[in-house]
């Protein structure tokens, strides 16, 4: 079966997880493709030529990049199913604040781990997620 939605992802990614939660909340079926971030596939490079990062949502062949933008897109396209944000503008602002806060924390964590020395390429990405969960 050909899916109209494809998610280019990397399973431990918190950015990808955010998109997976949004898709699950909406009850959408999609094809999940795990990318090797050390050897990026041609589809990822074609669909996200600017950042070359996951997650990328491909909807009817068209790419949407950046997790916050993807979540917003999902909410707008499937607006009749389980709204992702509260209807009250103040509550919506609060929800957006915490989403932004978590994104910034994730980015800082990623950068710090990139700077770590004596870490092999293969272990770098594994350590990133192990350290994150140990710190929680
Ligand atoms: N701001 C982006 C961040 C995405 C991101 O950092 N993705 C990481 C995996 S968690 C990635 O693809 N890294 C590959 C690279 O930096 O080359 C978003 O919210 O989607």
UniProtKB/TrEMBL annotation:
Its EC number is 2.5.1.18. It is an enzyme of class 2 (transferase). The keyword Chloroplast does not apply. Keywords: Cytoplasm, Transferase. SUPFAM superfamilies: Thioredoxin-like. It catalyses: RX + glutathione = an S-substituted glutathione + a halide anion + H(+). One of its GO terms (biological process) is glutathione metabolic process. Residues 3-82 form the GST N-terminal domain. GO terms for cellular component: cytosol. GO terms for molecular function: glutathione transferase activity. Is involved in the conjugation of reduced glutathione to a wide number of exogenous and endogenous hydrophobic electrophiles. Belongs to the GST superfamily. This is Glutathione S-transferase. It comes from Vitis rotundifolia. The lineage of its organism: Eukaryota, Viridiplantae, Streptophyta, Embryophyta, Tracheophyta.
